[in-house]
Design a protein that fits this description.
With 186 residues, the protein is an alpha/beta fold. Helices cover 30% and strands 22% of the residues.
Amino acid sequence: MTTLENRPNTALLVVDVQNGVVSGNHERDAVVANIARLVEKARREQVPVVWIQDSGGPRAQGSDAWRIVPELDPSDAEPHVDKKFGDSFEDTTLESVLSGLGVGRLVVVGAQTDACVRSTLHGAFVRGYDTTLVSDAHTTEDQTPWGAPPPDQVIAHTNLYWTYQAAPGRTAGVVATEDVDFHATS
């Protein structure tokens, strides 16, 4: 249903699941395991997996903090996009990568829920992509010392509000890992 013409394909977008991002995050191991299941499923079903890596601040390209967590195994054949801003589309090659793959629908997983995942969801949606957030495959760190709700509430709130996103010609939604259908049409 995407508003992007001639873009019938779906991609799994893995946002910032890096050593220096998810270390100590809420339910880190369970979330990473769910992401690993989705990566395997996408590969089996020949759905592109696109890896986003934040290369700002302490996560300089090539550093241990920049690397994808060891439980995940990105293929050199899969697209990698480096970013320096929350929205994975902002000043990156992501749009051209997705266009080249004919992708108009994104299934989004990763970290941080209240920063890069949220920014990327909105960035994709306003650019015309159908966007699905995987409810149990994103995480964030504890920001309560700075006045934020606890991580489980941030995650729950994001799942809630993304369920009800709407715009002409686009779909948004939230599904659990076990319910991801890479070939759904809406």
